[in-house]
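S.,

As promised, the flavin mononucleotide run. Input:
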Amino acid sequence: MPTPELLQALDQRRSVPSKQLRAPGPDDDTLLHMLQSASRVPDHGKLVPFRFIRIQGDARQAMGDLLANRTLQKDPVAPASVVDKDRGRFSDAPLIITVVANLKPGHKVPLQEQWLTAGSVCFALLQAAQAYGFGAQWLTGWAATDPVINAALDLGPDERIAGFIHIGTAVMEAPERERPDAAALLTDWHGQP
Ligand SMILES: Cc1cc2nc3c(=O)[nH]c(=O)nc-3n(C[C@H](O)[C@H](O)[C@H](O)COP(=O)(O)O)c2cc1C
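Predicted complex:
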């Protein structure tokens, strides 16, 4: 028997833009439950190719300052609007969970599959946040692949950022967007002629 609440949650899932997220975020117990739910992903080889880095409180502004300084380092004449945008990127939501893909190169499970598991964690965390009544958005942006930012977050050589999951209380109803028509994406394979 399908669980109507579960289907409803899946059918109504949507992101809340990080700019529309404010305190309160989840308390520590709630967050741990959310992370536990998000860790329950399909995982070929049971490699657990992911971990979490929490950014909250003053660390958010520290990250914003880091981004702004990095932008100026790359482009000393970067417009103030660009630098200010970077400085504010982690300021809206009260909590950002960095989902780190902790990859095992050389393992028989291909890196692509390990990477998919880390991505599944990000999506499951969005769902867990929404189930608790919070809004959330999965963001990457340039910071996710920047070597200086990765080093500042103490990422190892085989670690990559799968996403920054911004979590908080939505200040307004999240905008809906047009969704793909699954029926139009579906084809049947009937075997080779
Ligand atoms: C891997 C990944 C990275 C993303 N990074 C960004 C980003 O840096 N900036 C952005 O505006 N949206 C980004 N998005 C899109 C948002 O997470 C989100 O999908 C979008 O706001 C639409 O909302 P929806 O989840 O309700 O479809 C990213 C999505 C994925 C899957």
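The beta strands are 21-22, 50-56, 95-102, 135-139, 159-170. The radius of gyration is 19 Å.

- D.
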